[in-house]
Amino acid sequence: MAQLRIALAQVNPTVGDLEGNADLLVEWTRRAAEAGAHLVAFPEMMLTGYPVEDLALRSSFVEASQRALAGVARRLAEEGLGDLPVVTGYLDRRPVSLARQGLPAGSPLDAAAWLHRGEILVRSAKHHLPNYGVFDEYRIFVRGDTLPVVRVHGVDVATVICEDLWQDGGPVSVTSTADAGLLLAINASPYERNKDDVRLRLCADRAREAGCALAYVNLVGGQDELVFDGDSVIVGADGALLARAPQFVEHLLLADLDLPPASLEPVTGPVNALDGTTISIDHRVVTEETLPAYEPRPHYAAPPLDDPAEVYGALVLGTRDYVRKNGFRSVLLGLSGGIDSALVATIAADAIGPEDVHVLLLPSRYSTEGSITDAEELVKRQGLNSRIVPIRGMVDAFEAELDLHGLAAENLQARIRANIWMGLSNEFGHLVLTGGNKSELATGYSTLYGDSAGGFGPIKDLTKTMVWTLSRWRNAQVGSDLPFLHPFEEEPIPEEIIVKEPSAELRPDQRDRDTLPSYDVLDPLLVDYVERDMGRAALVAAGHDPALVERVIRLVDLAEYKRRQYPPGPKITPKNFGRDRRLPITNRWRERTPHEPA
Amino acid sequence: MAQLRIALAQVNPTVGDLEGNADLLVEWTRRAAEAGAHLVAFPEMMLTGYPVEDLALRSSFVEASQRALAGVARRLAEEGLGDLPVVTGYLDRRPVSLARQGLPAGSPLDAAAWLHRGEILVRSAKHHLPNYGVFDEYRIFVRGDTLPVVRVHGVDVATVICEDLWQDGGPVSVTSTADAGLLLAINASPYERNKDDVRLRLCADRAREAGCALAYVNLVGGQDELVFDGDSVIVGADGALLARAPQFVEHLLLADLDLPPASLEPVTGPVNALDGTTISIDHRVVTEETLPAYEPRPHYAAPPLDDPAEVYGALVLGTRDYVRKNGFRSVLLGLSGGIDSALVATIAADAIGPEDVHVLLLPSRYSTEGSITDAEELVKRQGLNSRIVPIRGMVDAFEAELDLHGLAAENLQARIRANIWMGLSNEFGHLVLTGGNKSELATGYSTLYGDSAGGFGPIKDLTKTMVWTLSRWRNAQVGSDLPFLHPFEEEPIPEEIIVKEPSAELRPDQRDRDTLPSYDVLDPLLVDYVERDMGRAALVAAGHDPALVERVIRLVDLAEYKRRQYPPGPKITPKNFGRDRRLPITNRWRERTPHEPA
């Protein structure tokens, strides 16, 4: 067997920040070199960030990415790092554009390159393009049709990109034909609840199929609604887990692997890829000779997080990166005394530190005494910046001119509060966070331009049930060493806030249960209708109460009209009302009939 | 030659309204039968409406569409219309689902069916799926691989669907092999400025390629941001225009065609489609015998609209259908005395009638005397409903608690106005229209949750230059018989409003030109940067002032962050900041560097 120390650089780039990402690549290559690695790999599209969406169709951006790649290759050599082979993802395009109706302008490629001694040794591009869920890659990329196989210290290393692992046939199948000793997959695979288990099984299956060990490096970081969790892994040819990086933090995963040495005569040329296409093996040599034997390091495998820890980690990282990558240093939110804004404040404090979290207490004539004291207790425990602004005078000024009733009067108060948030945001430059949860947003229990106003909604993909679960979980973490938690010395969320009955406090003695079903029956139904796209008949067959099914379908379908204007927030499920659930706004097909005005 | 009277039903369905659309199909089939037609064709996806977006992935919706098709076929026969062959678009799916990672769940089809004597005679599906611009069809459809050719009164009629015309190879190429006498294309082709000319040339080219006459039937109507303009056409085998329906109205286009009779032995079976695929010709017979000779009717060709008429027609139809199809009967907007809200009010009055347009005059301490009197004059000329609500007391109430300066203080006023609009909208059920134009929106000269609040933005895709052009054009139409205009007896927009210098009136003596470049230089630059995606170097090479290029790129890139929450409005250009310009929100690549907080 041949030895190889490989380094997987699980890093956090920013979309469009070509210079900053290039700096990151040089810095982490240096770390890998200092750790004695023989090969370092960066994630898919690391040099541009991912996903670039329609930026891929701008020729000025594609050219900037090409220049950045050539530049960083030269810089690595200039800084004495040229001998360490580097694999990285970047944005490229076909040299000869496939100009045809229906193909993306300029034929962009989701590309990978091997860099060595100041040069670009070999380039390739993603073969299988995902075009479902959050992905729209047929829109912006054309397909790659080569498999690079590079001999490093006598081991043939094949490289593929993300979706190439998820679909049958294509580069993984050709890897087996190429008789590679290691399959290196570079990825930008967004987090979803429990997806880490799916990924690990996939890697094991593909390793067995390719007949060699598999190293999987993933992005980490937040990008709009997406959160990349890292969780880079290495598995053996038998599918057994060898090494694993932690989730939600940058990490250099190092592993000493024993790999089969390459046969002297490499396989090259076109191969039937078993998916209706042909892929050419592009074989290159960096070093023929295997390494002299050395003492391997022990492998590291980060312990997996339990479910609430994993979700909470995704929310903290998604919030932190949305704030920081958009150039903000501080956030502002309304603290009502209820559980939703309490959890958002806590996530924000974990994400950017309590000293940069500004909360507003905006009592009205309907606010209970407890709301203010509970909110003040949370502020004290967490050390947040707070300010009280009573809204009564503003409500009175509107009511002097307008005679509003019912929902219109309730919404007025929510919008006055939003106007105060936005005024102070404009004055001081804080990003406004919103506190809506998925149960409320799905059923329309929210005010457009009121409580839904703001730039980012940290808990928009949590059911109310999960809001309670995570609040209790967070309180139980005092003393924990999880890297994404602020070291509060006491429970950050007062128990009174967790146990009180939910209320919007927009009219006397209002309670959520006056308007909504109880959350223990509502939330499972929302999951089935919204996330699983089950129709009326299927919902009833699954055991949901038929009358409740009618009522909830009606609420959810009507809320769609408003929901399109909601701000982004971290995704933790396949469907969180974001851009991955694209439905017409004007639409009379509902599970119910007939349509009524929203 | 064989004669055939064909009817193209240019109708306006609503997405998801399966029952209403089926009624429309029966009603217009009756009209065609009464006019003696031998074949009637409805547009692409007419039974479901178009585009259905992710509804195609819901199995309950696909099954409802299949039931609706079978039901309407039976109903046509029951109502005595079964002998007239009907071609219509609908949503179907492959009988055997192609369950594979990366393919849409359930294998939905953008389908066409021939209905005859209560039965579904033959089904097919769109072969070329558009996946660019406003289209995402790889996400939701799988491809069809048959070409139906149906013999009607001795003429072989081939049917294809929309994009099948726009791409080379595929069904049009097979139509020639099939030796068809008529190519019938059913379409849902959205309006863009000047696209009608492109479509007519395309139809002429494809007719010559197929070697037969071509009948092209298009949807008409608004659907969210899209406007379908109709403009159905029939061209001869030589590409010459024979008949043309008007734009922006429903129309039954009838034409008596002289077509080559079919050879007795039809071409059937698989054919190389010259696009890397194989298409099977699916030949059916309704009637073998050609018709006895009859006196043909003269052909009708609607005169083309000039450019401002066409754009204005698109805005009126888009606005009317957004209001009506979402179940609203009335609209509400703020009337500032400026040109933008004046044009929006006029479009609204043309769209739904002045009696259902409610305007609010909301003067502040910075409003000029002229603003109120000009707005009142417009209200009087158009017969709108109006109400004056001074906002001074509300501004004072906020300022008593908050000390806001500069932009924060300006935005406060805009948001107080939006709160009044939304309060009255919630109280009375009016849809709020917004008045932002494309020049303002692109440069961020607009307040989030302020003047940008509302459900629909009729002029969001018009540059300020076009706002002036259309206002003058509309005033010149007094006495016109264009079907999409209200018969005002005097110029609907007072001249004072058109000639006054643009101002937001949010601080003393404010003028747009204090903040923005003059519109005659700004607008052409916006068109090049936003619509044509030209980069910095290309903009300068095109003759734009380099300093202005820097400034405008910076404004536009920063405004992106806010713009994602804007409401829809009719699209009249390829890029209007809607969903067809998908860029990451968090994104440090700008034509300029470095990034600054939005």
TrEMBL record, chains A, B:
<feature type="binding site">
    <location>
        <begin position="334"/>
        <end position="341"/>
    </location>
    <ligand>
        <name>ATP</name>
    </ligand>
</feature>
<comment type="similarity">
    <text>In the C-terminal section; belongs to the NAD synthetase family.</text>
</comment>
<keyword id="KW-0067">ATP-binding</keyword>
<feature type="binding site">
    <location>
        <position position="132"/>
    </location>
    <ligand>
        <name>L-glutamine</name>
    </ligand>
</feature>
<dbReference type="InterPro" id="IPR022310">
    <property type="entry name" value="NAD/GMP_synthase"/>
</dbReference>
<feature type="active site" description="For glutaminase activity">
    <location>
        <position position="126"/>
    </location>
</feature>
<comment type="similarity">
    <text>Belongs to the NAD synthetase family.</text>
</comment>
<feature type="binding site">
    <location>
        <position position="440"/>
    </location>
    <ligand>
        <name>deamido-NAD(+)</name>
    </ligand>
</feature>
<dbReference type="InterPro" id="IPR003010">
    <property type="entry name" value="C-N_Hydrolase"/>
</dbReference>
<dbReference type="GO" id="GO:0000257">
    <property type="term" value="F:nitrilase activity"/>
</dbReference>
<feature type="active site" description="Proton acceptor; for glutaminase activity">
    <location>
        <position position="44"/>
    </location>
</feature>
<dbReference type="GO" id="GO:0004359">
    <property type="term" value="F:glutaminase activity"/>
</dbReference>
<feature type="active site" description="Proton acceptor">
    <location>
        <position position="44"/>
    </location>
</feature>
<dbReference type="InterPro" id="IPR014445">
    <property type="entry name" value="Gln-dep_NAD_synthase"/>
</dbReference>
<feature type="binding site">
    <location>
        <position position="189"/>
    </location>
    <ligand>
        <name>L-glutamine</name>
    </ligand>
</feature>
<feature type="domain" description="CN hydrolase">
    <location>
        <begin position="4"/>
        <end position="259"/>
    </location>
</feature>
<dbReference type="GO" id="GO:0005737">
    <property type="term" value="C:cytoplasm"/>
</dbReference>
<keyword id="KW-0547">Nucleotide-binding</keyword>
<dbReference type="Pfam" id="PF02540">
    <property type="entry name" value="NAD_synthase"/>
</dbReference>
<dbReference type="GO" id="GO:0005524">
    <property type="term" value="F:ATP binding"/>
</dbReference>
<comment type="pathway">
    <text>Cofactor biosynthesis; NAD(+) biosynthesis; NAD(+) from deamido-NAD(+) (L-Gln route): step 1/1.</text>
</comment>
<dbReference type="InterPro" id="IPR036526">
    <property type="entry name" value="C-N_Hydrolase_sf"/>
</dbReference>
<dbReference type="GO" id="GO:0003952">
    <property type="term" value="F:NAD+ synthase (glutamine-hydrolyzing) activity"/>
</dbReference>
<feature type="binding site">
    <location>
        <position position="195"/>
    </location>
    <ligand>
        <name>L-glutamine</name>
    </ligand>
</feature>
<dbReference type="InterPro" id="IPR014729">
    <property type="entry name" value="Rossmann-like_a/b/a_fold"/>
</dbReference>
<dbReference type="GO" id="GO:0008795">
    <property type="term" value="F:NAD+ synthase activity"/>
</dbReference>
<dbReference type="InterPro" id="IPR000132">
    <property type="entry name" value="Nitrilase/CN_hydratase_CS"/>
</dbReference>
<feature type="binding site">
    <location>
        <position position="411"/>
    </location>
    <ligand>
        <name>deamido-NAD(+)</name>
    </ligand>
</feature>
<dbReference type="GO" id="GO:0009435">
    <property type="term" value="P:NAD+ biosynthetic process"/>
</dbReference>
<dbReference type="Pfam" id="PF00795">
    <property type="entry name" value="CN_hydrolase"/>
</dbReference>
<comment type="function">
    <text>Catalyzes the ATP-dependent amidation of deamido-NAD to form NAD. Uses L-glutamine as a nitrogen source.</text>
</comment>
<feature type="active site" description="Nucleophile; for glutaminase activity">
    <location>
        <position position="162"/>
    </location>
</feature>
<keyword id="KW-0520">NAD</keyword>
<keyword id="KW-0436">Ligase</keyword>
<protein>
    <recommendedName>
        <fullName>Glutamine-dependent NAD(+) synthetase</fullName>
        <ecNumber>6.3.5.1</ecNumber>
    </recommendedName>
</protein>
<dbReference type="InterPro" id="IPR003694">
    <property type="entry name" value="NAD_synthase"/>
</dbReference>
<feature type="binding site">
    <location>
        <position position="562"/>
    </location>
    <ligand>
        <name>deamido-NAD(+)</name>
    </ligand>
</feature>
